[in-house]
# Entry
Amino acid sequence: MATFKAIEFTDVKPNDFIELAGIEAHRQGTVVAEHRAKWRLRQLLEANEVQHPYDQIYFTGHPVDGVIDYSKSLVEIMTQAVLDNERASTQFGTGGGFYSAAYTTSREASLDLDADLVSAVMGFVYDHIKETEAKG
# Structure
């Protein structure tokens, strides 16, 4: 198991800023949550020596009867967790694996990532986003 390294995010307010002009009002919450998730995931995964691009890491459930019923990027998972206030959805168990493409379980696309490490990264990012939101 890889050891999780926490970091201190710097320049949070400027990094969290996103221009919302031109984005439909009903999509703004999602756009903000996704933006906040992206830069934090990138920085923390890099600090934990994850070499694969943060926005190309997918968690895919193991197929049941050969059918994949769940496959989302870490960014999608984090964005939805933040919107739904569901930290538990950022934690990974043994029901799937990490891949470089959605809806695949091919050996070529498989990423050798430690589920505990990725869960720690996701939990840390989620907590930081929520703490930042609480501060206003």
Observations:
- The mean pLDDT is 94.
- The radius of gyration is 15 Å.
